[in-house]
Amino acid sequence: MVNKPAPDATRRSEKSRRAIYEAALSLVGEVGYPRTTVEGIAARAGVGKQTIYRWWSSKADVLLEAFLDLAEQAAQAAGHEPYSLPDTGDLAADLKAVLRATVDELLDPRFEAPSRALAAEGLVNEQLGREFVTKLLEPQLQLYVHRLRAAQDTGAVRRDVDPRIALELFVSPLAQRWLQRTGPISYDYTDTLVEYALHGLAPR
Amino acid sequence: MVNKPAPDATRRSEKSRRAIYEAALSLVGEVGYPRTTVEGIAARAGVGKQTIYRWWSSKADVLLEAFLDLAEQAAQAAGHEPYSLPDTGDLAADLKAVLRATVDELLDPRFEAPSRALAAEGLVNEQLGREFVTKLLEPQLQLYVHRLRAAQDTGAVRRDVDPRIALELFVSPLAQRWLQRTGPISYDYTDTLVEYALHGLAPR
What we know:
Two copies of one chain form a homodimer.
Chain A: H1 10-31, H2 38-45, H3 49-55, H4 59-77, H5 91-106, H6 109-124, H7 126-154, H8 163-166, H9 168-180, H10 187-199
Helix pairs in contact in A: 1-2, 1-4, 1-6, 2-3, 4-7, 5-10, 6-7, 9-10
């Protein structure tokens, strides 16, 4: 998807690339996905349309990479690697820390509007929705799968639990409150989700 | 919001009302919320625009009532009252039954397209989103709150659990899979959610 630039063009390209990401995210947050165009992104980023088409084939491609970049920055700001969850041996503490960082990200205005615009489009545009789930959301969910598998190895999670479903007990409630505004989100809230998910609602 | 019709107009009104609901739901599913108009709903329902404005003040109002009516029909089709959850004394069985009925509803084509269109709009149109949550979604979630409170009274759920958060452990995963297409939905899936939520992921 991305052609490697010639060495002497790298610095300038990197700057353009970042300007294009920022333009794409701000534009989709302001006017929504259907009215975001490659021309509009180019104009806002101060580059030619051809610069965008040299690197990406469509606005969906630009946005996908812009979100991947944003998620990477958010993970680094939260002090953890973008491609794994912390494993201190204390599953509850690790999940709470990651979900608290997610709360921060969801409440970040740079993230809010573009993410809503994209999620809204993904609900009704099945192809776009599936592409973003496959390339952006599911890889993030798989980090929880790996952390829960490690917890199964140490006995902190039952062996008969399917990690891919289990993670939804704390990830999906936060996602729904944020997406549909069904309730406030806070550290207390996500901490509670982790406690309920690990220990269940029934008496022990 | 709805003026009571004169007695001799009741039968005709009821027929028009249902035609308007159906027109509103099918239209929003086909063209999305922004392009749905009161004029378009009237034309499809075969009534005058003034007939709609006599009963409702906006397209949002028409759609809200159309969805309330659809939810009522779905509850009756599933064999339970629309305004309460079953209470057989077996919490897991009751929750599984209600979630299985919800799976049926989510997979019903009459429900699918209009619900997606409305949810998508609610993500980016905060006023509409909040109105539909307050009037449509939250009352449904409160049915789970009441059922979980009854379970606290019989000792099936711990006293220190907040039922409004607890219900999200099984409701939100299903909502997210359906909304964002993050995974398949089935009776097995929702049964598993109930088991995990009640008994937790950690060894007992």
